[in-house]
What does this fold into?
Amino acid sequence: MERVGPGLTAGHAAAGKRNHRLSLNPLRHIDWIGLAAMVLTGVGWAKPVPVNPNYFKHPKRGMAITALAGPVSNLLLALWLLLGARVMYIHALSTGQINETLFYFFMNTALMSIGLGVFNLIPIPPLDGSKVLAALLPDRQYDWLMRYERFGMLIIMALVCFGALSNVLDTAIGWVFQLFCRIVGFY
It folds into this structure.
């Protein structure tokens, strides 16, 4: 197989292309049942991007790195948005003018992006955090975890509906938001 990136082969790209997932068009990624669940319960999903662990030289590690791509992207986006808001704030200090709509868009989108990144790191299948946890587990525990992956979304929806994750998630999101604000110089 031809290598197209670190640990990736042409097979990964072909699978994504076959399923029309190599598109920036968000409509290609909508799972209509997941969207309905999002509206009704506050938890939803999109169509997953197929990843075959057999293409990786080290499958568990490759899956963990692949799984981290989404949450890390969310966190980097949040950092960039906060940096943009900080630049706007500094500009406003010198000119006395700020585009409040754009400023609050940056701040709120950063907060939502942090929320998505943190939420996806929860180690319950099928969330990305379960793939990261799986890489750290011995094969026997990994097999046990993956055996129950199909029930994970039901567990997550129940936890969210009953508010069991609210305090932990709010605390983690707030901590990351404050950390990022300190990094860009808001505090």
Notes: The mean pLDDT is 86.
